[in-house]
Each structure stands twice: as structure tokens, then as C-alpha cells.
## 1
Amino acid sequence: MLTGTERIDGQVVTTSTGQHFTGTDTLVTRVDFPDGSYILGFQQSPLSFTSAQADRVVTIGHTIHERGTVYDANGNILGHDLFHGRARTTIVDGRVVVDFDRGFITCT
């Protein structure tokens, strides 16, 4: 099961033709497996987009390279992973939805 939080911090500049956002996207995740083992992951990346004044829907595509630590059911470190993914964030009237197009994990 994948759970997590995404936090976007930044600044919006509004002009007569629209808005421009520049900031940081921080993603913290946890993946739980049936045997009790789990992965804790973290990613922080720059984010920017521009939208026209009339846009009620904003879509942002982004690539994810999230590093994580793999733990056994007792909390002992087993190794590290790197999640590679491609996602799309859509904002409609302030409601945020994230869809993953593809993703895979490599472990060390």
C-alpha cells in the first residue's frame, strides 16, 4: 500500500495575462508490503508553471526520482531504493489530483 504527502511551496505572480508559479515540490512516501517490510521515501524538486487567466484547469507533468530506505518488519535497514516515475498533477478549481503514468523501483 502506498501512502504519502505532497507539499508544494512557492510564489504565484499574477499579471493581466495570467499567473506564473515558481516553487518546490516535496514528496514523502511510505510503501507497506504484506510481510511487514516497508519503504520510506523522500523527494524534493523545483516546480514551475504558467497558466492563462481563463484557465480553470492546470496540468503539470513531472518526472520523479525518489530515494528511499527499505526496512524489514522489525525496522532494521535492508537497503536503499530509487523510484523512477512519471506523473501528472492536475488542479481543477483548487482540487489537486496526481496520476502516475508509469513507475519502477531499483534496489541496492
## 2
Amino acid sequence: MEEESKVGIPTWDLESINWVTPIAIGFYDGLSYIDFVKENEEDDVVWRFLCFLREKYQRIKLYAHFASKYDNKFVLASLRQHDETVKLEAGFLRLRWVGPNILFEDSFSLCPMSLERMNKMFGVEEKGKWDHSRTKKPWDMGEELIAFRAYLRTDCISLSHSIFQLCELLGVTFGQMPSISLATTSAKVFDKCFYPVDQIEPNIEFEEFIRSADYGGRNEVYKRYGENINIYDIHWMYTSCYNTPVPIGRLRWIKPDINRGTIAEATVKVPKDWYIGPLPHKLSGRLIFGVGTWTDWFDVVDLRNAVEMGVDITIRRQLSCEEEPILEGFRQFMSSLEGKGKDPFWKAFGLSLSGKFGQSRWRDSIRFYNEIKDFRGYTPTDGKEEYFSIKEFVGKGAPYIRPLIYIRIRTEARIRHLKILLKAMETGDVFYGDTDSCHTTSTLPTGTKVGELVQIGRAEKGYYVRQKLYGIIKDGRLEQKSAGYSDLKLTEEDFQKLLDDGYADIAISHLPSYRRVLSDKEVKLLHQGRRIKGDMGDSRKPVGNDTEPILLGEHQ
């Protein structure tokens, strides 16, 4: 084993051919490194690695980046093949080999970014470079095997040093160590250092009403093509909203009163000629901001803002509780860390707090067959029917589930985003807005503080096809946003065609760039029949190169 000068956290990494055939594993115990390279066709390199751990490293916890999506699945398969007992304690985020009490955890859940970005942020060794198309059976790699093993070694050691830096950062800053995920870590820090979570009422008896008032961020296309576009983001938007009072007391029914209350069921009448609807509504599984008349549960803060804008509202029933700005201390501390390094981590850390409060009380749980007494309700997850999944109730006492706080922060964020969109409309065109962004021809005031607008770019042209699918031309080059289609690199011609054809059901395979990819035999996706379906799932109705909000009530 090779000795290292720096102390780190135990890590490992698995490399394979075509992502399915393991050929090498690197392991760093925090002081020294060793690798296991497949020696012949019969060599089970994963089991050899596991036997090494059992012999020398019982009761160890080790990390791999993206382990829950990849590395841990090879461990599970190997251990079950050899009749070893395994427990999945947080799905594939935490896999426990029961006999030697060895934990395999996912470092991505602690620091949700690529290993390359993580290493740069913490100032450790850069991630190794390797072209995976060159990966072959080790005995066929020749001299390239040296570079391959060096790449594997660098990945293990750099991850170890990054996690060590993360532990040190949290320890020095809060006196806390990472938990299973960044969200849980953030909630524990808030609980221990800022406000005791057990002093916040869970209000579980009202959860049906609470969840009915839960809506996500706004994502809408307003104008589908434009030029000379300024692109803005709200800096650390969700964290900036932590200065608002949030519900912490026990809910009770009160008489309808727009000036009081926490959540309410209300009938709203939004003027039909409004260009941007102020209130959220869930329609056929999608979130829209419509016009017209409908009845829903809302955060009362949303209703108050709508009344100020001129919406007619009738409250039908209402729940109220004590509210205090208990997140303000956390917000101020996060703001004090901004600009002092590690900004990507602290942004995610702050955002994770409200996300943890909003988690469901039901979670996917995976059990081995010998742990299950009654199989009713369970579903097999593997061909041998050894592992089964079920939705399990995490209990009334789940310490960090406080959905009212989550709803209030999301509501406040939507209102602040809406105000920026409306401000931009006063002096120019608005093309697109997604949660905390605004694409507009207007010039808006910017700043450097948390919650202020930051201009992140300027585009000569923009093609906005639908939610999460657009292309912008910056400095003569196309930048593509295409959630669900990121492996298909579209051209400006493709985006023009998508706009020209309207929101008709357009097969991606009909686009010129898609045919080009197929002709190069690099990607074969034709059999999947992937399509862009515009008005089947977008949040606004297209009208030429413009859009309008969906009318509710009359034609819903």
C-alpha cells in the first residue's frame, strides 16, 4: 500500500467496461492507497476487494461519489451472491454489510456537485482525466494501464481530502459533523445552533390541508422568441426568504380574515385579461398560474399579495397559528459566509434546510426477504425477488418534517420572483422565468447581497420552446437548456423549427441535428420515440410567438 502525507476519509471507487463489467477498484483508508485490478476472466475483483475489507477494516465507513446510483449496486450484488447479510438503511445512500459492520455511503448526498467541482471548491487535488472509451480489460490495455490506475488513485484520494475538508468546515463553523445527507446535516445544524426544532409544532392532524397549500416555483414561457435579452437570477433566493415570519405554533380554526391566518381555502377570481397570473394551481399534474375562477388551499401570504394586486378573494375556511421569523439567525449566518469561499456549498446548504422541512412522511424502504414477516404491500425490486420495496410511514415524531415552514418559504420566494417579472414588464418584454430567473429586454437593478438580482449573462437571441427547453445565442454560440434531452445537442435551426411548427407533437428524430447524431452512430435513441409535447404539459397557452395564461373555471 502506498503511503500518503495528508490525512483523509476512507473512500473507494469502482471502474468498469461499459458501466457494467467491473475491472478495477481503488481504496484509500485515509492514510494509504491500494487498488484491485482484475487479473483474468475468472477474477471477481469486487469480492476480492470486499474480502480485503472484511479482513482488515471491520466497522469502517467509506464513501464513493454517486455510490447510490452506481458503486453501491455492485457491492450489493456481490454480497448477496455470496450470501452475506446486507441492510439498506437509507436506500442505496447507506448500505451496511452486517457481518463486519462496514458502511458504504454516498458522498454526493453530502456535497451535491460533481467530484471535479467539489475538489476545486475545497482546493485539493484535481480529479483525474480519463477517456472511458479507452477502458479495456486490464491485460489488453498495455502501457495505458499505468495512466488508468493513476486516474483511479487520484479520484479516491482527492475525494477523501475533499470530504475531510468538508468535515473540518462544518466542525469549525458549527461544531457539527455531516449526517447522511446535506439536508439532514443542515436541519441538525439549525436544531443545535439556531432554534430547537422540537419547539415547532408539526401539526400532523392538519397535514392534509397543509399539503394542499404546497406549490412549487414558477416556470413559464411568456414570449417564445426575442433579441437583446438580459438574463438575471435572484442571488440565493430561498435563503434570502428566511427573514420572513414562518408558522411555528399549533394550528386552530378561525373565522375568515385576510389580515390573519396561516393557510386558507379560498375561491379566487383573477381578471381574465391579466398577462401573468399571481396565484398557483395544480392542473392535471402540472403547476400553472392561471386566470379565471377556482377554489384551492393557499398560504394566506399568497392571498394577501393577490388582494393587493386586485384579485377578488372569498375565504371559505381558515387555519391560523403563531408565526415568528425563527430562520432569520440562520439566514444572517449564511449571508455572512457568502463571498468567503465555498459559496456553491453554502448555497446548497441553506437551500437544503427548507427542503428538509418539506419532506414527506412516507418514504421508499427496501428490505431483504428474511426481514419481512408479512409480504402484503411489498413489491419485488430484483429478478430473484430477494429485495422488496414499500412505502413506509416515518412517524409523527419525524424530527425535521415541518411542512408549514417549507410552504411559507416557497410562497415568499414565488412572490418575490413575481414582483421582479412584473417590474421587468414595465419597461420591456419578458420571455422566460424559472423559479428565480428572469429573461427580459429590461435593465433591472442588481446587487451583490443575498436576495438581490445578479445579471448572469446577455443573449443576442433566445428561442423559448417550452418549460425547461430553450436555446440562447451568447457571443455567437448556442447555449442549450433541455431537461430530459441533454444528450441531444440541438442547433439553432432545430430551435427555429420547433418554434415554427408551434406546439404540435414534434418527434425529436425529425430534427436535423438528431439525424446527424444517428448517422454518426454515437447515440441510438430512435426506438425510444421521444417527443416534445408542447400544450400537453406546459403552463401557458401559445398564441403565435406569444403566450397567455390558462383560463380556469369556464373551460377547465
